[in-house]
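thread: overnight batch results

M.L. [08:02]
morning all. the overnight job finished for the chain we discussed friday. pasting input first so we're all looking at the same thing
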Amino acid sequence: MENKSYKALVVEELNENEFFVEVKEKTVNDLPAGDVVVRVKYSSLNYKDALSAIGNKGVTRNYPHTPGIDAAGIVEASTRDEFKPGDEVVVTSYDLGMDTPGGYGQYIRIPADWVIKLPSGLTLKESMVFGTAGFTASMSVYRLSSVVKPEHGEILVTGATGGVGSMAVAILSKLGYYVVAASGKSDAVEFLKEIGASKTISRKEVTENSDRQIMKGRWAGVIDTVGGDMLAAAIKSTIHLGVITCCGNVASPELPINVFPFILRGVSLVGIDSQNCPLNHRKELWEKLSRDWKPEFPADFHNEISLEELNDNIRLILKGKLKGRTLVNLGS
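M.L. [08:03]
and the structure it wrote out:
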């Protein structure tokens, strides 16, 4: 295809531990080799994107760089027969937005194995309301719901106002679970109830008495998005044969736990790795999100911003000031 120019958010490393973010003009020839060129219509803001934008070398090793682990758009060119110009597609995870230029550019070029066709029950915009956060939540719900049924009892969701947490609350509620949403934001109660929480509690209520080796059993299942002491307390207070999924470490990567919940109650701790989810399972989960698992989101569940407004929102997500989902309209 011709060497089109486009806008992209670019993070540059000025000096050690000093990074600068701006929207710049790029050309398609600047993109790495790949099978499929996609004109990006929408992306979304995730915590990992914010880490990439501030120079976290555990996420992105090489700069200058364009973050954005999510992208939804239209195929412009493809060397693979399964994709044709005009196809609407979704790209999430793998190396997109980490060390491969991501969805904060109006064009991306990626391997075909990273791309799935947009399910018929979703628009491009809706797919990015879900994004990696919704996909990660769907993986968590899938693993939990294979064992724990709505009649088994309460499901705890930690970090419930965040992207993954809020998506998990909404999907679980859609499937008929009694969801208890834990959050450190006292002003988020109405928001959490609007998206399907049956009850809201504070972080303190989750961790109370967590110094004990095992706590009174309460949760039939847990979707944890924060790690650390919250996850440890959730494991200790899960009932017999309960399932806990773990997908985040914003509180801490350390897990202060003993074996008693596992050997006395038979609970299961399941790790969630959405980045490297096999393609067939990825397609299965996107189909679920487009149909039976698709919640009715309230109007304020997502906030739509432009590429130029993105840097301010990156600062907000790092401070824990955002709730729900932030959608990026690339205007391409």
